[in-house]
Amino acid sequence: MKKSSHSVKHIILYLLAAVVVLMTTLIPSASQAVLAAPAALADTAQVMETADSLPEPATDTHADNSLSSGSVDRQIENKKLPSRVAIIVDDFGNNMRGTEEMFKLPVKITVAVMPFLSTSEKDARRAHELGLDVLVHLPMEPRQGKPEWLGPGAVLTKMSDAEVRQRVEAALDNVPFAIGINNHMGSKVTGDERVMGIVLAVCKERGLFFVDSHTNYRSVAGRMARELGLPPVENHIFLDDVHSVSHVAKQMKLVHERAMSQRYCVTIGHVGIQGKETAAGIRSGIAGMKDSVEFIGISELVRDEWKWNSQVTLP
Ligand SMILES: [Zn+2]
């Protein structure tokens, strides 16, 4: 009796072991199958969302930490690009000193033209004919600085919504071939959500983008541009805050370093009283970096970094 109860125990143990083996082999595969379906659906949904958002750059596709497959591909794709530099030259439009020298630089620059001045149209047209990008260099109220430095048609924070809109639209209508706007002065306006909201809304309606010259480190322009699905492009380095050839050349070295470490750099110089010196400094800087970076227009930067497809039809 003892012996048979022992063998019954053995049989029960064998049965239990068999059940355990069956359960460990069957249940995980079953649960995997259940899990696999939503995962596959999620993947499809993600792919569709990425495809849907391609024509219009949505804010989340710009986030570097986005996990969507599209943005990972884009990061890999971006890593293959050579380091790039976009030089924007401000204050064209008033036959300023250095205009000729800037147009004769051996690389692509972006020409920012102030509206309503004696050579606004001429400078914009010439830039376009040379294959250069044109921005409207929109005068905007600074926190400090003389009002007469602003130039005609400036956007001020005391203006009503309708007045701000009218000023932005008039400036855009005055400068042909513009693909975007950047700010002349503007440390007060770029910190003002209401006024920047109107400026960016007009940009969006017209298929343009806004380049924040970054005269105000508390600027709201970048964040608001992201929220509207516009490329949050901004200036990184001013070239001629001190007006000498050697200073500009030194700043160009910083531009080079940033482009090499951050993949691209946006920099701003000026035509004007010291425009020839700035052009000479840029020219000497170009000679020292032309083998390791690519000089591009701002339109190429927003196209490649933020997948921004301008809908502007140029005349
Ligand atoms: Zn300016």
UniProtKB/TrEMBL annotation:
Residues 53-75 are annotated as: Disordered. It comes from the Bacteria. One of its GO terms (biological process) is carbohydrate metabolic process. CDD domains: CE4_DAC2 (cd10936). Pfam families: Polysacc_deac_2 (PF04748). This is Sugar deacetylase.
